């Protein structure tokens, strides 16, 4: 390791060069005038050449001092900037979350609202995602969807998900209110693209035959599937966490009970091993809220 001058010596030299006064430099650095003078003298001894000309009432930089000062000043500025950046990150009151848009609007919004009522000083930014997550370095916390057999290392499953079959109140099949699972074979159905297995699971659950999606509505947005169902465009199978707000408002109903496990689950990944206090606080809040979803089923 190279032997370098002590950082204190460099700070004393830079301040003294700025003020051309050991006394003024000592006031800025909160030390004695003799300490600054000794620091500069020690630096000069280290370099083997003088940096200042000592005059009766002031200082003057030598030619070496003039040449050395800009590099020292830049180095100290870079140290200050890097240190401030680390401290700002550690004490920042901000959390960045990425989350599938459907879950963000139908579940995370409520979690976030309650959190910011309790902690208004913490700024939470949410990036909505569709299928793919945002860049890995963007978010402190990333919520993603994975098959239960393919959960990535480091991801935490938030809850065990269930599916709900829903439709608008009064939804009919061949002019008859939907009340019997056998009617689903002829019902207008809404499919979430990328999740055709949802309806396959319903068919298996009720032992239905001759089940296909020919002519049904399709969308890659779960919230749109729920809205279409609420408008009477068909019945839909969606994660229960997403349809719960619609059920509570009465714009969707479950025509018959189901207990179907969803093989796709929501998981969370946390970027930093030692997160900032605000991130740690929101992580705890998020996991508590997720535990309540698991309790409700």
UniProtKB/TrEMBL annotation:
Gene3D superfamilies listed in its UniProt record: Periplasmic binding protein-like II, Winged helix-like DNA-binding domain superfamily/Winged helix DNA-binding domain
Domain HTH lysR-type intervals: 5-62
Molecular function (Gene Ontology), one example: sequence-specific DNA binding
Organism superkingdom: Bacteria
Keyword set includes Transcription: yes
Gene Ontology biological process terms, A to Z: DNA-templated transcription
Record-linked Pfam families: HTH_1, LysR_substrate
Protein name: LysR family transcriptional regulator
Species for this entry: Ruegeria pomeroyi
